[in-house]
Amino acid sequence: MKIWICPGSFDPVTKGHIDIISRAGVMCDKLIVAVGENKFKKSVFTAEERVDFIRRSLNGLKNVEVESFHGLLIDYAREKKAICIVKGLRAVSDFEYEMQMAFLNKRMDEEIETVFLMTNINYSFLSSSAVKELALHGGPIEGLIPDAIIDDVRKKFFK
Ligand code: PNS
Known about the structure:
Layout: E1 3-8, H1 15-25, E2 30-35, H2 47-55, E3 64-68, H3 73-79, E4 84-89, H4 92-108, E5 113-118, H5 128-136, H6 150-157
Parallel strand pairs: 1-2, 1-4, 2-3, 4-5
């Protein structure tokens, strides 16, 4: 069974992420969406909320599981017997950081590949940070994140 991992902070998940998850899902037998913590970037949503948001946004994708993980991604990938890490790329600016991560992960485990999917052009401008900034100021977030989570994202900023 070919298991792939799609890691990220997903703070919160966007339509761009869901597009990458859907496309990666058809390339493997099982895709694990792994919600991680970038220790140098404080998350607005808890790991439980982020996992729940993704689960509610999958629209019946059958071979996709969502979990959170701690520690190094490569250790988690090994534990899950994954053969591949998949990430989305929006622009050259993403590439530099992602290439560094891919090299470091490869250095720690030669057997696990990293592949990149180019984001859907419609979402090339979209990021979780932009969504949070819009939500914070009461701006329009419809169409940027899955409909199922819009109310919860808004609520976080207007309690
Ligand atoms: O959506 P992001 O911010 O690109 O996600 C980053 C994440 C959580 C996937 C990344 O920070 C990560 O893999 N963290 C776990 C620690 C790790 O393995 N870092 C890479 C090697 S130094």
